[in-house]
Amino acid sequence: MSTYSDASGVIAPLPKIRRPTGFSGVVPAFAFVGIFFVVPVAILLLRSVLEPVPGLGNYAQLIGSSTYLKIFANSFIVSGLVTVISLAVGFPVAWALAIMPGRLTSVIFAILLLSMWTNLLARTYAWMVLLQRTGLINKMLMGMGLIDQPLALVNNLTGVTIGMTYIMLPFIILPLYGVIKKIDPSILQAAALCGANRWQCLTRVLLPLATPGMAAGALMVFVMSLGYFVTPSLLGGTANMMLAELIAQFVQSLVNWGMGGAAALVLLVVTLSLYAVQLRFFGNQNPGGR
């Protein structure tokens, strides 16, 4: 027991600090969630069913319009492509980082973090310069004789996919690295001693153990891609609009908060549904095999 000495020199025990118990201990957390999440979502929901006229007309218009359905399809197609490509590129990088010497790993991590800290708008404009018809990528491909005419890499879904994949890669490499780093190397050694070749060690040992990290990273990338605004608007153009651009257009250009709220709530429901699926199938898995 801790004690203290008062002015008269008498040693007495320190008074016990009463910690909140029961429901009172979580009141601040509930208040924070209520103020910054529940209340804004409730206001958005109300505006989506009350403006411009009460009812579900905004949702019916979103679902019934082929133009809006195309925007939803573009959003899911691009987000899915970005997620798959990020996984395909990010997994080897995460595995290499996990087995590299510590000093080299620190250098690679510094490059990854530097790319994340660089202004998003500046990175997107840099890709616009690289991907344009007279940009470095087209010049290199034509110089190597791989193409005769410049490729159209901007103002389409190709440019959006390339730019967003570059931006999303760190968000899938970092969780994958954390999971792969925890995998006990003796498991792979045991598989090799039992006769498994490298491909079998990868597909039947390493990939299953890294599945929780892959699922978490893929969910993060997919959800962030669905709500991205800057990169699709600059590299995609109006003909390849995505959901975040549609919401911004409803609110800023058309001042139609009802439709904007309906589109935003559809995006929120999709995000929460994906998160629920991820928890259902991967929430209780123990990554790393430990």
Automatic annotation (TrEMBL):
Q: Which domain of life is it from?
A: Bacteria
This protein's record includes keyword Cell inner membrane: no
Q: Which SUPFAM superfamilies match?
A: MetI-like
Q: Where is the ABC transmembrane type-1 domain?
A: 72-278
* UniProt membrane topology term: Multi-pass membrane protein
Name the Gene3D superfamilies on file. Answer: MetI-like (1.10.3720.10)
InterPro entries given in the database record: MetI-like, MetI-like_sf
Please provide the record's keywords in A-Z order.
Cell membrane, Membrane, Transmembrane, Transmembrane helix, Transport
Assigned protein family: Belongs to the binding-protein-dependent transport system permease family. CysTW subfamily.
User: What is this protein called in UniProt?
Assistant: ABC transporter permease
**Organism of origin:** Rhizobium hidalgonense
